[in-house]
Amino acid sequence: MNRTGMWQELTPEDRRARLSVALWSRGYQRRGKPDAPAGQVFTLDGRHITDEDTFYCAIGEAINGPGGYFGWNLAALDDCLCGGWGAATRFTLHWDSSAEARARLAEPVPTGDREVALFDLLLEIFEERGVTVVLR
What we know:
Blueprint: H1 12-30, E1 41-45, H2 52-64, H3 74-80, E2 92-96, H4 98-104, E3 108-111, E4 114-117, H5 118-128, E5 132-135
Parallel strand pairs: 1-2, 2-5
Antiparallel strand pairs: 3-4
Helix pairs in contact: 1-2
């Protein structure tokens, strides 16, 4: 898991397993290491984001490098945004090829009394946690 984009070649089932491995290996690797300082700029490549799992693979790589972890579901992403997983908020996320990702992350997610597209929900979570997202 030390090569950029390695997850792109995996089957959907293997990507899910890769997220689990990244969680546990990253947890051990990060022990005692500080987050990147607030104000950092990270670049998320949206070209290969085709579903929720590929989003988590891509954001993990954007924040923590190849094989990196930064959530594997919405609750875990929110936890990571609280610190201790590689990046301290307030940071900026440049989301490249965001229009492509938006089209692929259009499935509705129930949130309380409404449904919202996954892409839009991700943007809401980032905003609530103080992340500036620049869609490019």
